[in-house]
Give the backbone structure.
Amino acid sequence: MIKRIFKSLADIEPNEFKSTILSFLFVFILMASYYILRPVRDAMASDWSDSEVSSLWTLNFFISAAVVALYGFVVSRVKFKILVPSIYAFFAATFIFFYLSSSITDRDLVDKSFYVWISVFSMFHISVFWSFMSDIFNKDQAKRLFAIIAAGASAGALIGPMIPAILTGIIGTEILMLIAAFLLIVPVPIIFYLAKLKTTELHNEDVKADLSAIKIGGNPFAGFRLFLTDPYLLAIGVFILLYTMIGSFVYFEQKNLLEVYDRATRTQILGSIDWLVNVLTFGIAFFATGRIVKKFGVGLTLASMPILVCAGMLILAFAPIITVLLALQVIRRAGSYAVTRPAREMLFTEVDKETRFKAKPVIDVVVYRGGDTITAWFFTGLTEGLGLGFAAVGIIGAVIAAIWAGVGIFMGKFYDKKSSTVEFE
């Protein structure tokens, strides 16, 4: 009866029911575990100076690049059905280690290691999942089922932040690491059962994941020439660089304003922010993003969030209080995820497949991650080097946001011109 109900609501065949539900549960657990740990990580940052956080971001850039290279090496030599559960079990073990290490008296090094490690975890937890899905389901099933499975990620992103927001004041922040570690163990038997269902119920013995697609970032050097010689790609790079700069500015402002609270309170506040951001992101993406792009075009859509952020930074400059900052952070993140990110991905539809494959890693890895690092040190230079306060830094952030809005409008015109040229040809 349950299978018939699901069949009437969604295009799921009876033999796909177990695999779909288990995959939904799988990604739900992954997203929930990440959003349990994220506010724990970000709450730590307020204990450190701007230069210390900048150093951690720089370290994260190089460690992430090294881990990506190592993963690309391992994935071509280890069977996928063994590699995937091993990755999640390994991350679970590391979080148990961090929990046990939290009792150390001088835990500054442990906290900083955890801070960097969560960023590494965030690169892999969903990417590996979708690679595994492409090894389980065939192309026809993927078209029908992946949207349903992806809803599990949205559900996990809504439920996960509620745990630190509600429970941190009761159980503390360290236990959250243990909860997340336990959750990451749960998918291990699910993975093996899905591998079994692949042959017994789905009959997809011949389906193999395209492992080349999961070498995150690839070799960015192959795309440098294309990136540096194509004005369209350079414009996209400038837009994303300004995007990362604003994100870094708001993050550092948040870090500094939250330093007056204890770590448990920060974790609760940040967990609440994550939950609210995910609720707004889901609602905006589902009901508004498509209509916004259709009504205003790509250019104004790209400029909409920068304009709001510019106004928010100006308000923050003259009223540097936590309520204003948190409202700005919610608006910025929800708008970026639901509006700016989809619109910016549209820009890549106007380049050929080879250019997209070679140049996009340069933008995603070098420009995006490198921009984070550069901006972190720029912010540190303003605060610790020049001794600027919230007001001055807020005005500088507003100027950057205004430039970002202008680039967004320019990109929209560039996109429309390129699109019309392609249609004409």
Observations:
- The mean pLDDT is 84.
- The CA atoms of residues 96 and 315 lie 42 Å apart.
- Residues 220-420 form a domain with the Growth Hormone; Chain: A; fold (CATH 1.20.1250.20).
- The two ends are 54 Å apart (CA to CA).
